[in-house]
Amino acid sequence: MTGPDTYPELPDSRSIRVLQLHSATNPNDAIYFDLIAISLDEPPPDEAISYTWSGQALDRPVYANDKAYLITKNEEDIMRRLRPSRPGSFKDLWIDAICINQKDDGEKSVQVKLMFEAYAKAQRVNIWLGQGSKSTALTLKWLRWYNSKRVFKTGLAELASLEYWERAWTVQEANVNGSCFILCGSSVTFRLDLFYQSHYMIPPMYIFSSLNNSKLTQPYSLHMLDVYRTNVNSEFGNEILDVLCRTKATIPKDKLFAIRGVFPDSLGALTVDYAASDGDVITEAAHIVLQETRNVIFFRYACQAGREDRFLTWVPPWTSSAHIPEWLRRFSPAVISQDAIVSDQEDRQVLKLKGLRVDKATSLISERFPIISPLLVSWSRSLDVNLAYETFVVFRDWISTIGAANNEDTHMRQLASLISEMMKLDYEEVLVWFSLIWHGDNFGMEALWDYGLSGGGQVCDCRKYTVNFLQLVSGRSFFTTDDERVGMSTLVARGEDEIVQFTGEKLPYLIHKSLDYPGKYTLVAPCWLSGAVKGEELAGWSGTLGDLEDIELV
């Protein structure tokens, strides 16, 4: 179906192909276009198209350079929508999946580097969201006028749920050109920047209505970041790392190739090579993030439950966010060094990082606690009772294992200290609450977490302590250490896991001796230690680099 006549030769590394779409007077006429080679240094194509094409079959027949050619339904719909009707007229389009020979990895590796420039230089970028529905059509019209609340609410939800907003490549395509327009079905085209701005106007208009707008802009947040629209050099912080985790791509390495053009001074150095393995590309990106940020906060994104990707344990797979809420990130010991201190090494698969060995986990480890949804408001009672009971069963089983169901026990006091400091609760009152948990069949939850009476006659606001405790341990695990501390980690520790404070990160980490690479370690999870959550100096740290060791991570 395709051949040299379909894909004319690209004369040099600055050349791209554009699609010259023929006119048709009848919307149902067959689609004809020519693929022609142009230089990016010449006048750009009329319009570039940003859309998704994953999962769609190549089953729509068209004619490219008078040769039969198959495209996806999305591509057919776009061309029918944009095809000129005046006889003899043409429209030049850039559609990456068609203009780049997808069967030629060598060509793709070169052309992908030019995509940022192709979209940026186009006279305009059209964002195709699909045919849409009556609700989405009305919603796009409402961004100029308001009509029906119920239909509008449905339209907002449908627009927000479209796959376009999740795909990695569309983040770049929608933000490199100041002249972007939204197309959805037969709706009138709408400027992308006005589409974004209008969403910030909606919540005040509905403040007294039943429409919940608290997370209205969340689906678009990947495309609404100021750093993209202004194309400025920005710190590669948590916001950008979250973007990588929340986007989707058919090929894992495409998530990084898609966003590299937005950060030319950092990820722009990433080698675009489709013959390279996903692991090699993601490892190279991790080194770039480390060099750009000079810290290893990205380790938090590497510590995910059930990883089966076989990448290096210190390299994030960029498939899930860190799951450490902002309020929990504040608790840590004193930082050893804001900058990561990395020793020179030839093997890029090994990260040799300076760190301080702090402690070691014992075998007294709890199961992972159930995940509890965050409260909408601090005084909310809308907690799942079954999950609360499951949480306290895990908690009481662990306390029974370590033999600490006694408020005089060292571990019990370390745990009370950890909870009181991280949740801003009174230490002695936490101990009172503990006594209710050990001895009451309802785990101290009198009348659905109202007030309980301890054996000593002390009244305890069980609801307050239970609510705070559930939020603290959600999805996490407790463990004890050789120094009789109590720790909490985002994943379940293993006996003999070592606790290390790395340079370039304020949270301590659990690491485990690698079975495959003697003398090296795998990264397990970030953690918190009793007595080391309010900026305390760690034992063994005198402030000199001589206290630190090279810890090799694989």
TrEMBL record:
Pfam families according to UniProt: HET
Signal peptide residues on this chain, from the entry's feature table: none
InterPro entries named in the record: HET (IPR010730), HetReg/Transcr_Mod (IPR052895)
Domain Heterokaryon incompatibility span(s) in chain numbering: 47-173
Name listed for the protein in its UniProt record: Heterokaryon incompatibility domain-containing protein
